[in-house]
Fold:
Amino acid sequence: MAAAVGVRSPADRGQDAVIDVADLRMVYPGPKPGAPPTVAVDGVSFHVGRGEIFGFLGPNGAGKTTTISILTTLLQPTAGHARVEGIDAGTRPHDVRRKLGLVFQRSTADEELTGRENMAIQAGLYGHSGTSVDQRITELLVQMDLGPVGDRLVKTYSGGMRRRLELAVGMVHDPKLLFLDEPTLGLDPQGRAGFWRYIRSLRDSKGVTVFMTTHYLDEADQLCDRIAVIDHGKIIATGTPKELKDGIGGDTLEVAVVPGAPDLSPLVTPMPGVKGVSRREDTYRVKCTNGEHLIPKVVLAAEQAGISVRGVTAVKPTLDEVFLELTGHAYREEGETPKPEGPGESGGDSASRGPP
Amino acid sequence: MMLPMASLIRREYLRWIRAPTWVISGLMSPILYLLLFGQAFDLSKLLPSGTPPSALSAVLSGAPNYFSYFAVGMVAFASVTAAMFSGTGIIFDKQLGILQRILSTPISRRSVFLSSLVFRGILTLIPAFLVVGFALLLAHVPDVAGLTVGAGVTVLDSVQFLAAALVLSVAFTALFLSFGFAAQRIESYFGVVTILQLPILLTSNAMYPTSIMPTWLQYLVGFNPISLAVNIMRMSLFGTAGYAYSAGIYFAGLLAWAALFVGLALLLASRALRTNPAASPSGGALSQAIAE
Structure:
């Protein structure tokens, strides 16, 4: 079912895809008449299968929030189509809204209300009320570790509690499709791990499909079944984290030898699976597809040639390297976004998105 | 259809009941006007002594004394002052992202607007009732002027009084709600509201009779929705003598204002809740909020 990197066959399009996006474009008009428009999403196509945790990975300003806003019917796309459960988000937004739950980047709960009241009102907006809803709210509060504070006003909540409440509010009507926009922004490592656990259990126990944006590479790597990497409004790669990492040439072996030893490169380069060897002083970096299997061969060949090996380390590629490889630039940190996502006044406005 | 609206109204109610300070601030000025201005500024004392009560009553549109005349005007003023806060909630909802969350649910855009109008409209009536009660109470305090109502006031008159107060509340709630939908920041909202407050009040007959004004001002005052509502309310309590038109005509005028303000609010609300940034020159408040 999983499509190959960056490619998808016409057969798997639409059929069991919960989300189907084709040639999506979003152009914001310039802030003033005559000002140049901003292309936030530039011809994006992808699909998300049922029960997948699909990550939309990219730096701030890449077009992530715009895409999620189109899929959740909060924005009308300029061109292309976005279908949710086969329903076009642009032409039948009302029907799409019933299908999904949405968790925003920032806290959107009412400060003056309790967690429970926030959830009950959200359920009411979906037309749900009664004792079954009350039960579900209690269940969700417990699942989210909010049981003891469910009847306290939200303004007394900590940052982590607010994030968890946000998720509970988004889940209150029991959606089978959940959109998460930077869900772990501002959570501590423990909070993030707990959050990931809950998302996985949602998928595993209830078959919930999750579409999430993130700019944390490790989060995409550990949590997501598949990832689309987006930069400057374009998808530059799609695939499982493993596929993406394999796609840039797999592992790297770092081989350290004693100083003054003969050159190791001619011995290693012809070995099967080796893509290239570089050397800096007494350390060689061997790019290869099968790091662990190559280690004994390299060590043996070196010893036979009289080169004493001091140590070998197999380095698994990270998505950082994938990003660098794909875009030609390192992963941008928060606030360094050179291109605004929306019709803001200048490029600097993305920095106001909130501290990590 | 009804449950989503009821949920939003419940939300507004819970927020209001937990932060009712604005009720006090909204009531402050009408009460002060009743207690101080209304007591001190008795127009009838300026008339030459020996003026028959009937002549005074004619100037005051049938009211038995100046305070009674003035108190009815303050009922309308209290409503309008309370309505001035109507648009603040929607601005905070926009800024905090709460509006986007609500709009991502299946509730209709019209219900979002209507729930605000219904709740805020009712809220706006509360100060009006309190002013009536307070003014009636003052009539029983020695040495203090109070609202004196004629003995001939019927149930129908009371209904007419209430209907005028309600339509006035809805009209100004809608007007200020529409500013709330249009404004991006609370500062610009109150900037506009503060500019409007005194002209709206002072070009009405809430505090002084139209007959003592210059002709050009009389025209302005005649069309003011506060004047129209106050005319109907005074007719209910003090009789219909001395008015140029019937209560029905004033009511029609008041309804026309209400329709205009509700229409304006609907237009600005649908613009603010629109999801297509290309369709409006300002880009649409919502899409701007998303893009930021």
